[in-house]
Amino acid sequence: MAKKISASVGKGGKNSPSDVRIVQELINNQLGNITPIRRLVVDGDAGKKTIAAIEEFQRRVVGMRQPDGRVDVGGKTFKALIGESSQPKRPAPPNLTARFESASRTGQTRQMMSGRITINNHTYDFRSGGHGRGFLPAGTYTVTPHRWDRSESGFSVGGVGFSFAVSDAYDSRVGDTRTLLRIHPDGGSPGTNGCIGIVGNATVQRAFREDMRTEFGRSNNQVSLQVVNGT
Fold this sequence. Notes:
Layout: E1 9-10, H1 17-28, H2 48-62, E2 70-71, H3 76-81, E3 96-104, E4 112-119, E5 122-129, E6 139-147, E7 156-157, E8 160-161, E9 163-166, E10 169-171, E11 176-178, E12 181-185, E13 196-198, H4 202-218, E14 223-229
Parallel strand pairs: 3-14, 12-13
Antiparallel strand pairs: 1-2, 3-4, 4-5, 5-13, 6-9, 6-14, 7-8, 9-12, 10-11
């Protein structure tokens, strides 16, 4: 017999414990589609981890650009969870891929990762973390334009500044959702507060910004970012 819920679950939902447990079980059955979300404890509590998992499922499987973190009775998210989506979607290839290649500094929230990010068939060096908030967790993100010109020292190099907004992400290292994530020049002291900082002089920064402009133009001002560990 197909599983059913009696009312909405998640952000702003009624969150009956029995309904929440059903959704948690269904999400656990979908972990292969929403990596790196970890298996949920089936406890009937619609807390931050459950809502974050719902949002990631909506983003990667349902195809929602702005996930609402809620599973409604008979809604698209619930139908996808039980395998009744009329047109199941495979996640599209990411527009950007950021790959961590080396680590420096010690401590869970002070560690800084260095790597390479590929956009529009060009590859750039980047750093993430090192300033006390940890590096950007591996996973899939949505990136949108934020500011095309910035002058603050931490967001510009050689007079070239910008920032692109990265979707929020639950970070198990701190037990909370990371917000205000950005892609920007790695200006000032090396490293970031968990954002992706592009390494290089003004010419490099200008080229990266134009590659982002090109990619946004192809994708209606919204692109996907895949952050992965290792080579």
